[in-house]
Amino acid sequence: MSETTKNSLESSLRQLKCHFTWNLLEGENSLDEFEDRVCNKTEFRSSGFKATMYNLLAYIQHHRGQNEAALEYLRQAEELIQREHADQAEIRSLVTWGNYAWVYYHMGRLSEAEAYVDKVKHVCKKFSSPYRIESPEIDCEEGWSRLKCGRKHTERAKVCFEKCLEKNPKNPEFTSGLAISSYRLDKWPSPQNPIDALRQAIQLNPDSPDNQYVKVLLALKLQKMNQEGEGQRLVEEAVQKAPHATNVLRIASMLYRKQNDLDKAIELLKRALEYMPNNAYLHYHIGASYRAKIHEYQNMGENGRYGEREEIQELIEQAVSYLKRADELNGNLPHVCSYLACLCAQAGQYEEAEYYFQKEFSKELMPVDKQVLHLRYGNFQWFQMKCEDKAIHHFMEGVKINQQTKEKEKMKNKLQRIAQTRLSKNRADPETLHLLAFLEELNGERQPADETSERDLDSGSLGPSASSAEE
Question: Are 214 and 176 in contact (CB under 8 A)?
Fold first, then answer.
């Protein structure tokens, strides 16, 4: 192929509408995190979405240098489109053909790349356009792809679905896409009200498997607006009509979790886990729900009698089991190691607690998360390990972080209490005087110390503690 022809091919490729020209990886720090988000975290459709997913997987595999695997995913996408959208196969294949062209181009197989560019050109010429057409089906494909890619793509996804609805305002798929985008944008970056969009999507196609997911989103919104009756009805209906849809089960579990019905939340998450046994987020949420049940017992003070202590021990074992599996599947999930450390400390497994605390410290944490970790580890050193000096060090490190949080106030209060106790024994102790000078430099208003249950868990006890309750 001559240089002129190659330059012409490159120009044609840049005009295609496909994943390679949508720049889906722009601003991403890690391909691993991007793939995890696409494959495991972001879920919103239970059917009719496989071709979109295959195209995304092809795009990811190309960026991993696995172009043959990318081509295989594109073949699966193409076959699926031919089978499920025979009446629109050409238009719905344009994105896939564009991806084919780009993959072949990067492989140096320029004649094959050119062949797919020509296929796109042949279809587009029917609409008086050389390489791209304004088609709601293509905008819809871009919208779903961007929604799968996470929060930073949501505004652009919403624009895609709005363009689709300008051409076909009663299309159920386009309406569902707009509703889900609006829901995701409810709090970020600017508040929006997705209620009307969600209701319209449900009304257009109430029995669609995809719209059962929209129902549970609406239920969550209604719950926040204290309209729990309608929300409960919608969730029960969605779970009944889509009993195997993992996206429905996951979101429905959130509603029950917010209602403090932790047993029902765990039940739904375990049902979802049957279909996605290696999904780290499901393991994480099940473990977190068991952890919440432990806190529920502690807050009720039900930990003194033998039977209740035995039940708390069983809950700790369940929580630890699921959280460990989540950590094995995805070592980058936030808070998992911190939760595990506190649960192990509560069970008297101090070496394992130390391991998970150090594992969490080794991660790149946001300032607020680092502050919480210093509080939890300081509590562990103070109450379980009886090492007041290490506790002081971590409380001071946490307080130094420039974030005004309740955790910061708790650490200031703890440092003040330690200083007062030490002063009562030796008013000239230099370390205590240094600590007091440090506290004075903070120039912050000190809140009353939280005395609740901070010494109830002593070396291996199964009652509440500062470390286990993260206070």
Answer: yes
Q: Which amino acid is at 285?
A: H
Query: Taking residues 105-115, what's their average pLDDT?
Result: 96
- Nearest C-alpha neighbor of 98 from the set 130, 69, 125, 74: 74
Rounded CA gap, 238 and 256, in Å? 14
Residues 6 or more apart whose Cβ sits within 8 Å of residue 104: 110, 112, 113, 116
Q: Measure the CA–CA gap between 354 and 469, rounded to whole angstroms.
A: 17
CA distance 265 to 255: 8
Q: What is the pLDDT of residues 204-225, one digit of tens each?
A: 988 787 789 999 999 999 998 9
Q: Yes or no: say if 155 and 190 are a contact pair by the CB < 8 Å rule.
A: no
412 and 374 in contact (C-beta within 8 Å)?
A: no
In one-letter notation, the amino acid at residue 250 is: R
CA angle 221, 226, 229 (to 5 degrees): 90
The answer to whether the CB of 174 falls within 8 A of the CB of 144 is: no
Q: Chain-wide mean pLDDT for the chain?
A: 89
Q: How far apart are CA 161 and CA 147, in angstroms?
A: 11
Peptide linkage before 189 cis (omega within 30 of 0): yes
Judged by phi (left if over 0) then psi (alpha if -120 to 50, else beta), residue 470 lies in left
Rounded to whole angstroms, the Cα distance separating 113 from 269 reads: 44
Give the pLDDT band of residue 459 (cuts 50, 70, 90): very low
- CA dist 359 and 312 (Å) reads 25
Distance CA 138, CA 160 (A): 9
Q: Environment class of residue 374 by beta-carbon count within 10 Å: exposed (0-12), middle (13-18) or buried (19+)? A: buried
| Token pair for 368 | 């607020």
Mean pLDDT to the nearest integer, 388-402: 97
Please give the share of the chain, as a percent, with pLDDT higher than 90: 77
Cα 18 to Cα 103, 157, 162, 183, distances in angstroms: 11, 14, 19, 25
For the chain, state the CA radius of gyration: 27
